[in-house]
Specification:
Length: 147
């Protein structure tokens, strides 16, 4: 049986994210592991040259989303007693950023929430599925119930 020393919780702030967070905290406690948190904000394009701007260029939605995510992640870090230096907000593709941060920090377990979708949902891909198939470490996909 593996012993985990570094666990990365990928928080998505869906309605069940606290359930996933509790599982990560439980594992970190059980193994005496260092818990880190990550949330990835996907870049939002402000316009398409072919169709014109979607929103005025003065409004940077990505920056606003990052600020909101940083506030929520700071609160989650405090709630889970994770030091601020191990709480991260990144911008980009969730799959790529979660895997990159896990590799850079020698993480041996990534914890993500998963709705366990099949068929077309699986074809379209979810972050949990992508992380599961591309990570070089163990991944715990915590099953969430669809409401």
């Amino acid at each position: 049986m593996s012993t985990y020393t570094r666990i990365l919780l990928a928080a998505d702030f869906g309605e069940n994210y606290r359930y996933v967070a509790r599982r990560a905290v439980d594992l970190a406690t059980r193994y005496g592991a260092e818990l880190s948190l990550i949330h990835v904000v996907e870049n939002i394009p402000t316009g398409d040259a072919g169709y014109g701007p979607i929103v005025p260029f003065e409004i940077d939605l990505t920056e606003q989303l990052v600020e909101a995510a940083e506030k929520r992640m700071t609160e989650l870090g405090e709630e889970l007693q994770v030091p601020v230096e191990r709480v991260r907000v990144e911008v980009g593709s969730p799959k790529h950023e979660i895997i990159r941060v896990a590799e850079e920090n020698a993480v041996d377990l990534i914890v993500v929430g998963s709705h366990g979708r099949h068929g077309i949902g699986l074809l379209l891909g979810s972050t949990a599925s992508s992380v599961l198939h591309h990570a070089k470490c163990d991944v715990l996909a915590v099953r969430l119930k669809d409401e």
